Amino acid sequence: MVKFIESELVQLRREVDQMWTLVYNQMDQARQAVMTLDRQLAQQIVVRERRVDAFELKIDSDVEDFIALYNPVAVDLRFVLAILKINSDLERIGDYADGIARFVRDIDVQEIDDRLLQDLQVDTMFTLVLNMLEELQEAFNEEDAEKAAAVLGMDDQLDRIKRASGGILIDYAKHNTDAIPLCFEFGGVFRKLERTGDHLTNIAEEIVFYIDAKVLKHNDSQEKSDKKSPEGKK
Q1: Which of 45, 62, 70, 178 is least buried, going by the fewest C-beta atoms within 10 A?
Q2: Residue 215 gets which letter from DSSP?
Q3: What's the mean pLDDT when you consider all of the chain?
Q4: The pTM of the whole model exceeds 0.90
């Protein structure tokens, strides 16, 4: 029985790894589509989104079956609960890649100004997201809580780029009125990448909890609150 349970856990891990790779490829190709305004590639991403959704449903079903059949406890329970939450976060990231691809496919322009792309640090933002995805996949597979926690700081860089993007887009639109629709829609790309960072932060926290039974969620907000309150001052 123990060996059978172990084989089921290995299968769940394999399924999540496959979904992770698919979502990574979706986001990587979304980056390429934005940087080159490749509408054909964007359409391929949209079509493959169905595979991401199918993976999510399959993994959810397999986890539910595992819990019902084996009533896991301790680390096994943390593992399957982490998979449920990671699976949901990966599906949402896949949705964001799909949304970015639809922006490329549907926007009514022939090209995007290279200078605008550079000022907005679009490629940098995509690179951060892809690095976070890759590092967390390795952390999950290697059961390395320290590597997972190290990714958390990268989300701050995404937030900084996102905050700066609004002003850059407004300024560009003022000087290029014909690009107002592009700038308006482009803002959605940055919101999706920022939200992707939030979901990756969730994944990092779930990996740490699964491995070390340590809850990181809400720690940052609590520390900020303590610093503002009289009780938090030293």
Answers
A1: 178
A2: -
A3: 90
A4: no
- Asked, for residue 113, whether it belongs to a domain, the answer is yes
221 — pLDDT class (breaks 50, 70, 90): very low
Which residue range forms the structural domain that includes residue 82? 2-220
Nearest in space to 39 (alpha carbons), one of 101, 116, 95, 97 = 101
16 located within any domain? yes
Q: What CATH number did the domain enclosing 80 receive?
A: 1.20.58.220
Specify if 232 maps to a domain. Answer: no
Q: Please name the residues in contact with 166: beta carbons below 8 A apart, sequence gap of 6 or more.
A: 187
225 inside domain: no
Asked whether the beta carbons of 146 and 33 are under 8 A apart, the reply is: no
For residues 180 and 70, give the distance between their C-alpha atoms in angstroms, rounded to a whole number: 57
